[in-house]
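Q: Here's a chain of 211 amino acids. Please give me its 3D structure as C-alpha cells.
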Amino acid sequence: MSFPLILAFAAVVLAAVAGVVLVREKDPQRRARALVKMGAVVMTVFTAAAVAFIGGYAMDQPGGMAGLMMTLSWFVPMLVLAALAWFRPAVASPLLILLAAVLVVACVWFALDPATARSLQDSVGPVVAIGVVALAFPAAVLGLKRSGPAGWLLLALGTLPLLVTVLGRSGPAASLAAASAVPLITGIVYLVAARLARRDPASRNTLPAPA
C-alpha cells in the first residue's frame, strides 16, 4: 500500500472514531476531551509516519549528509514550534498563524510561476507538503491547550495550500493531498471539540480538565 493511501486510511479512521465518540459519549465536556486527545494522538502517529517517509526519501535522494541536513532543516524547527505550543501557547498561536500565512503566500507565488515551482520541488522535494507537515504537528499540540484556534489553523493548512496548488497546477498534488488529509480532519475534530467545550464558559477554547 502506498504512503498516500495509508494516510488517507488514517484520515478515514479518525473520522470514524470521532463519529463513534460523538454517538456514544453523552457528556459534552467528555466528548470534547476525548475528541481533542484522539486528534492529537492521530496527528502524532501521522507526523511520525510522515517524518519516516520524507526522511527516508531524503536519505536516498540526495542521501548522505545532504539528505540528513535537509531533513533536520524542517524537523528541528517543527519540534521547537511544538514545544513552544505546549509551554507558551499564547506565543505559539500567532506565530503559527504567521507561518501558515507565509506558506500560503508561497503557494500563491508557486501558482503564479509554476515553472520555477516545479524546478524547485524537483531539486529539493515537495516543499509545500513538508511545510504542511511541519506546521500541522505544532498546531495539533496547540490544540491540547486551545482547541478552537488550533482547529481553524489545521483547517487552513489542510485546505488552502492544496487548493492553491491544484488551481495553479504548480506542484505534485498527490503528495500534498496526502499531507493535508489528516490535518484537515483533525482540524474539524478540534473545532467540534471547541464547540462542545463552549457549553461550559470556564473551558472555552481549551481542553476540559479531566474529571
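Q: Can you summarize the key feature?
A: Residues 118 and 171 are 6 Å apart (CA to CA).
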